[in-house]
Fold this protein.
Amino acid sequence: MKLKSLLLAAMLAAPVATVMAENLTPTVPLVGAPPSQSAGFGLTHVFSGEFWDVITFTPGVGPSTVDASLVTIGANTTNIDLWQAWIGITPLTLVSLFGGTYEFGGVLGAGESGLLQLTVHGWAGNPSMHADMPVTASYGGTINVTAVPEPETYGMMLGGLGVLAFLARRRQTS
């Protein structure tokens, strides 16, 4: 009798379990040479539901400022609702227009170093759809990375300016 109760409970609980869309984890190469690098990306979900995507940008970077953007447009089975996004630990500001049909977000000047990862949390497909239904929902974005000079670089620059000032002053007095 106990086995029947457990099986019945498992069958009733199965539809209640949270079903998630596939989580995507692409690696995107940064293009260009420091101090300025950038990348564009696009991701497509084929099942409706909640997702946590993690986009990794390579190679890792030294101390840098990072600008990032996300954009999506669509309704019904092409819709993506962006709930949260972070580059490293810096959150992106997200905006939704036209009842969620058009969404975009971004961050300017996030200070980052090391491996750059953009984490995006949201829902693929129309929010009223049952999870795990077929969809073709996508979003895209860009990232721009600008290296921040090391303190030693500033020290060398100030030293050079000091030498130039000394030489100019010496030339002026003679």
Summary: DSSP finds two helices and eight strands in the chain.
